[in-house]
Each structure stands twice: as C-alpha cells, then as structure tokens.
Amino acid sequence: MSTLTILQRGEPVLSAVAMPVSNIDSAEIKQLIIDLKSTVALAKGVGIAAPQVGKSLRLFIMCSAPSERYPDAPLLAPSVIINPEILNTHDEQELGWEGCLSVKGKRALVPRYSSIDVNYLDETGIMHNQTLTGFLARIFQHELDHLDGITFIERLDNESDAIDEAQWRQKTLNN
Ligand SMILES: [Zn+2]
Predict the structure, then answer these.
(1) Are 36 and 146 in contact (CB under 8 A)?
(2) Based on CB atoms within 10 Å of each CB, which residue in 48, 65, 129, 152 is the most buried?
(3) CA gap 31, 16 in Å, rounded
(4) CATH superfamily assigned to domain 12-174
(5) pLDDT band for position 69 (50/70/90)?
C-alpha cells in the first residue's frame, strides 16, 4: 500500500477525457484501487478520481465521512466506482460548497443535480443501478467530471467565484 501524489489543476491529465476500464481483474487496477483508497483517506477527502493521480481511467472512489473538511458529510464505506454513467437527472440543480484535492485551498458554491440515477461497476465487476441524492449525488457528479477533464472551477460562471479555504471556514462557521 502506498499513497500517491495528487496532481494539481493545470496538469494535462486533469483536462483529458479518461478511457474506460476494460481489465477490472488486472493487477494494475487492483493496485490502483488500493492506492487510491489510502491516498484519499490520508488527504481526508470524500472522493478521488484516477486522473487525479495521473491515471487516465474511468474509475473513482467515494468515501464520504464527516471530517474537518466536510463536517456535514454522511458516513459511507469507501465505494469503488468504475465506468460510471448518469442515466437520469431529477429536480433542479442546487448550490453546495465543494473543494477538490486537485484545487488546493479553494472552495466554491457549485450547482449540481440533487438527485441522479446512475450505473457503474464495482471492483468485482458487478453492475449497480442506484439513485443518489444530496451530498452523495454531489460527490458522484464532481468525480465523474474528473473523468471528463472538468474540475469544479469550470462549473462556475466565474473563476473568481471560488474563495480561499480560510474565508470559507469563516463563512460556514458564522452560519
Ligand atoms: Zn476533485
């Protein structure tokens, strides 16, 4: 088990469209999954996508848990999401605070659908069909964007709508 270097916005792999995973059972993919899990845990993130560690593959981890970075996050055992798709979106988009391990020190209010129907393969190759709502729907959309070369900054009307983490902490403490 090793932790990987998390690439920062500006690296070409973070703006590339990633390739589907075709060999879920390969040693390379198994190792990547182990390393992504330890990397996101160490970084106290709620998700990490393969392109963030330089692997242009359609795979991400969701691992929501309350933390200093996301105090209101629901608890979810780490899930491996492979070749994900959004089949349907429900309701309006709503704004919610996001950060990103590849956009260090920034937070912004990002519009996301509050409910989505998705499918994906897990690490054993089983297909899952699920409806995700709220924060989990938000993580899924954020991580899926990474597989399409998009960071949350590109979802803003204006890059300057992103604020420093220190400012964000002040704002959310005062609410
Ligand atoms: Zn991110």
Answers:
(1) no
(2) 48
(3) 22
(4) Peptide deformylase (3.90.45.10)
(5) confident
pLDDT, position 1: 62
> Strand (E) positions, 22-162?
47-49, 59-62, 79-98, 106-121, 127-133
Task: List pLDDT tens digits, range 130-151.
Answer: 999 999 999 999 999 999 999 9
Q: Let me know if 143 is a catalytic residue.
A: yes
| Residue 157 binned pLDDT confidence (cut-offs 50, 70, 90) | confident
List the domain boundaries for the chain.
12-174
Interval between CA 83 and ligand 1 midpoint (Å): 17
Q: What is the mean pLDDT of the chain?
A: 93
Measured CA to CA, the distance from residue 112 to residue 96 in angstroms comes to 8
Q: How many Å lie between the centroid of ligand 1 and the Cα of residue 98?
A: 9
Task: Give the residue carrying structure tokens 């088990």.
Answer: 1
Asked if residue 60 lies in contact with residue 46, where contact means CB atoms within 8 angstroms, the answer is no
Cα→Cα distances 48→36, 92, 146, Å: 7, 25, 9
